[in-house]
Specification:
Blueprint: E1 2-4, E2 12-15, E3 18-29, E4 35-41, E5 50-53, E6 58-62, E7 67-70, H1 74-78, H2 91-101, H3 119-123, H4 130-139, E8 146-148, H5 149-152, E9 156-159, E10 162-173, E11 178-185, E12 194-197, E13 202-206, E14 211-214, H6 218-222, H7 235-245, H8 254-264
Helix pairs in contact: 2-4
């Protein structure tokens, strides 16, 4: 299911033996656009400390009760590697985190989640081998590509012919925790209108200038399907979105997309 990450803020995180806190924000991977961690505000039981929870730990999502159930214990979280969420999370920090929980690295493998297609597939690959953990720590020398959703919201969005608005949110696919869309607010030009843009349509991001450059024109965005946060994102809406921008949907191949357009005479 596709949902705005804003809707998950404030969700309770329930462990095997109690409630450990609430969702504050997220860390996403700026290369693959996948949510890698939830930042959890623990409240009083850890002195207000924020901790990271990987989607790998999530068992289920209870939308009615606004709760995420995780396969963790309070002691596990209490004794997990100390990561300062107010500072950039390094790859070494991630390696220590994954080593502590015994999960294989998401950055080692051909899929969105390394050896698996989703974080749930990583659970079956869990390993507690000290030798494997030590070997993984030794290999973890590359840079991390994590970005805070809270820090990136508000970035200016640039079309090929000028600015168009600012980044206002992230759409999450809770099947694999990817970010198939970002939410763009264009109210500086067209009051109240919001649109969705695929990260695949982004040409570059200037992290120093806080600006995202899209390979779309302002006119295309202006006339694009409007996004209403209060309504579910249906496949019909997604089809309309991709048809408008003339881009292949992420759920079909480029070859299938070209064949469909040829058959329809477009």
């Amino acid at each position: 299911m596709l949902t705005n990450t804003k809707h998950l803020k404030g969700f309770t995180i329930r462990s095997a033996d109690g409630e450990m806190g609430t969702v504050e924000q997220f860390y996403f991977d700026d290369e693959t656009w996948a949510i890698r961690y939830l930042v959890v505000e623990t409240g009083g039981w850890l002195g207000g400390k924020q901790v990271l929870v990987s989607p790998i730990s999530i068992i289920s999502i209870d939308w009615a009760d606004r709760r995420l159930n995780v396969a963790l214990t309070m002691d596990q979280v209490k004794n997990s590697p100390d990561i300062d969420t107010q500072k950039p999370v390094s790859r070494q920090h991630e390696a220590e985190y994954f080593g502590y929980y015994g999960y294989p690295y998401y950055w080692e493998g051909p899929n969105l989640w390394g050896p698996a297609f989703s974080p749930f597939g990583m659970v079956k690959l869990k390993t507690d081998s000290a030798e494997e953990v030590a070997s993984s720590l030794h290999r973890a020398t590359m840079d991390s590509h994590l970005r805070s959703t809270a820090a990136v919201i508000g970035y200016h969005m640039g079309a090929v012919d000028g600015e168009i608005g600012h980044l206002d949110g992230f759409i999450l696919d809770d099947d694999n925790w990817s970010v198939p869309y970002i939410e763009v607010a264009t109210r500086n030009w067209w009051p109240g209108k919001k649109v969705l843009i695929s990260p695949a349509w982004i040409e570059s991001v200037s992290w120093t200038d806080s600006k995202v450059y899209m390979g779309l024109t302002r006119e295309a965005i202006q006339t694009g399907p409007e996004y209403d946060e209060s309504k579910p994102i249906t496949r019909a809406y997604e089809n309309l979105l991709y048809f408008h921008y003339g881009r292949p949907p992420y759920w079909i191949s480029d070859k299938e997309h070209r064949a469909a357009f040829t058959t329809s005479g477009v």
